[in-house]
Design brief:
This is Amidohydrolase family protein. The protein is an alpha+beta fold and 651 residues long. The chain has 16 helices and 29 strands. The protein folds into two domains: 19-237, no CATH class; 304-646, TIM Barrel (Alpha-Beta Barrel), CATH 3.20.20.
Length: 651
């Protein structure tokens, strides 16, 4: 469940001159590589030498039609004159906008509001989730105008870069394409490939819900996987580490936090050699290597790097966002196969900034509601996909919502045979108990687990109820792990009149385009009030499950990059967990359930040196976890503020 709701402008216009015969072309629209629709555009060449494009976008996303119509008129010299955009930019967001450029002025209309503003230099009025043909025209305008360092879009500067030249082998000859990156039309980079005629071959981006989208000309449909993989590689390299790798690091005069034993050691030191903890103990006893970089912690708390156990790294910007918030390991719970493989290999090679990625490969069943292209209609198809994921280094398989019971069982059996675990949703038409019996190991999203229990009239779950005791016994015997995503439901059920900084104190530091994605996320106040009891039940059940011995792991399902993990931990403490227990949910517990507790999850000799310094005491106040001031991972030191600035976050 990923929610990126509010979208931005696409802007287009009207015909003012007599049209000549039209040209028509199209792009194929994909969501997670699955064909879901078309973008068709008609070009009318005007008698005055200008051009008028009318654009018709239509796709169907998980049972919902998403239509959009747009226009743009260019002068004979290729400068934009008028734009309009009306329709939907996702299943959940609409647009009704227009721009008219007259001399040095812009007349901007959004819904029923119109304003006149001065036209800035180097201006091309594009903004947010624009159709592919508009992106092509933007790049053509940029090239015609000598590639200015910054283009002024409607609501801020846009950066455009030439990244590489790619050669594709086609039956009728090689195709030479320029790979172009565009930053800040949406939050983060989009990637385009332009052929030698100046035509767009492909665009890889996200939609207004944060899902991966690809627009591809039919001639290049067979190259789709190439474009998806290269967008991860080129994108990750844009954020390559500026800090050098240190062979030896000594952190002295800190407070060492043992999250497993729930102990602290004051005035402690940690010696790191080649990315591993070689020694830790009292600072006065430390023997510091001669070549070590020395960090004076000044009594800041030293904790293991945090884990997000429900990530979806669908943009390269998530790598820096995680590092800046002290999250050094994530479980990616479903992504494009080639994209996540390319991103992980680029980061692991030291050519990008990001956490250690543990991959969970998604498998869904067929149908209009299916997610992506990893589809298993039969047991044999399910087994083949598990083998594909295993061969590619995935740790887990993720079940999605359209799978049938016999396919679920085959997937679980094959995954366990291969030494993998199985996580995910409870498929539609199946019960939680049935899915547990068939072999799922980890359940994502608390409501799926709620189904397994008998509730009273208030919706509360009494684990002393005979049926509930029986179900709890089964969960314990099967060693089921739960990823509740409480912060997700808090945001989804937020009353729209409640300021977002009530949930996320750092909200105002987010880039404006990212803020806009969350502004409309929530419910009308009257409806939100009805959800308050459900949220209380969720928190109570998390506490009960934890007390009963069910492992709880902290995950976010995207939302506000990095910061939502902090909120998840705050909600665990609000539910009744101690601060120690909440910290364990984002450190040693996920390391343990993923089979990696011998190498990570705590600060111990011989383990990976994933270390964060916190300017506060999260054991006394869990919200102090928000005060991460230094991150060490893969032998590199990161200043969170500096890393955040690279992806447009403020202080």
């Amino acid at each position: 469940m990923q929610k990126y709701l509010f979208c931005s402008l696409l802007l287009f216009g009207c015909i003012a001159a007599v049209a000549q015969p039209s040209d028509t072309d199209r792009f194929i629209i994909h969501r997670h590589l699955k064909v879901i629709g078309r973008e068709t555009y008609h070009l009318n060449r005007m008698a005055d030498g200008g051009r008028h494009y009318s654009v018709d976008c239509f796709y169907a996303d998980r049972g919902k039609d998403v239509p959009l119509k747009a226009t743009i008129r260019l002068s004979a010299s290729g400068d934009p004159l008028e734009m309009t955009s009306r329709g939907y930019t996702s299943r959940m967001s609409q647009i009704n906008d227009a721009v008219v450029i007259r001399g040095d002025s812009l007349l901007i209309t959004q819904d029923s509001t119109t304003k006149l503003v001065a036209k800035p230099a180097n201006m091309f009025p594009v903004d947010g989730y624009a159709p592919a043909i508009i992106q092509e025209l933007l790049v053509a305008w940029w090239m015609k105008n000598s590639k200015p360092a910054n283009v002024q879009a409607l609501f801020g500067p846009v950066e455009i870069r030439t990244l590489a030249t790619d050669t594709l082998r086609h039956a009728n000859g090689d195709r030479i394409l320029s790979a172009i990156g565009i930053n800040n039309v949406i939050w983060g980079w989009e990637f385009l490939w332009i052929d030698q005629r100046g035509q767009l071959a492909a665009l890889t981006t996200i939609n207004a819900e944060g899902d991966k989208f690809e627009f591809v000309r039919p001639d290049y449909e067979n190259d789709l996987l190439f474009f998806a993989a290269k967008s991860a590689e080129y994108g990750a390299r844009l954020y390559s580490a500026k800090s050098k790798e240190n062979s030896a690091i000594a952190i002295i005069h800190g407070v060492l936090v043992d999250v497993e034993k729930e102990k602290k050691l004051h005035d402690a030191a940690i010696i790191v050699v080649d990315g591993k903890i070689s020694w830790l103990g009292p600072t006065q006893k430390a023997v510091i290597p001669a070549n070590a970089t020395i960090i004076d912690a000044k009594q800041r708390h030293m904790l293991p790097g945090l884990w997000d156990m429900h990530a979806h790294m669908k943009q390269v910007e998530w790598g820096p966002a995680y590092i800046a918030t002290g999250i050094t390991t994530v479980r990616d719970m479903g992504n494009e196969f080639v994209f996540i493989n390319s991103m992980k290999s680029t980061i692991d090679a030291g050519q990008g900034v990001g956490p250690n990625i543990l991959k969970a490969g998604i498998i869904d069943g067929p149908g209009p509601m299916s997610n992506g292209i990893m589809i298993a209609e039969t047991k044999e198809q399910g087994i083949a996909l598990v083998k594909k994921y295993k061969q590619a280094g995935f740790h887990q398989v993720k079940l999605y919502s359209q799978l049938k019971p016999d396919v679920v069982q085959a997937i679980c059996v094959e995954a366990h045979r291969a030494g993998m675990t199985v996580a995910g949703h409870i498929p539609q038409g199946m019960t939680t108990e049935q899915t547990v019996d068939l072999g799922i190991d980890m359940i994502a999203h608390l409501p799926y687990l709620m189904r397994a229990f008998v509730g009273n009239a208030n919706g509360d779950v009494d684990l002393k109820h005979p049926d509930n005791r029986k179900m709890l016994k089964k969960l314990l015997e099967k060693k089921i792990v739960v990823d509740p995503t409480l912060a997700l439901f808090e945001l989804v059920y937020r009353p729209l009149d409640q300021p977002l900084n009530r949930i996320e104190p750092a909200f105002q530091t987010l880039p404006a385009k990212l803020q806009a994605d969350f502004t409309s996320m929530g419910l009308p106040p009257a409806e939100a009030e009805k959800k308050i009891p459900a949220q209380k039940v969720y928190q109570k059940l998390v506490f009960q499950l934890h007390q009963a011995g069910i492992p709880i792991v902290a995950g976010t399902d995207m939302l506000i990059p990095g910061y939502t993990l902090y909120r998840e931990l705050e909600l665990y403490v609000a539910a009744g967990l101690t601060t120690w227990e909440a910290l364990q949910c984002a450190t040693i517990t996920p390391a343990r359930v993923m089979g990696l507790s011998t190498t990570t999850g705590t600060l111990e000799k011989g383990k990976d040196a994933d270390i964060i310094l916190v300017d506060g005491d999260p054991v006394s106040n869990i919200s102090d976890i928000r005060r991460v001031s230094l991150v060490l991972t893969r032998g590199r030191l990161y200043n969170p503020s500096e890393v955040h600035q690279t992806i447009g976050f403020g202080r």
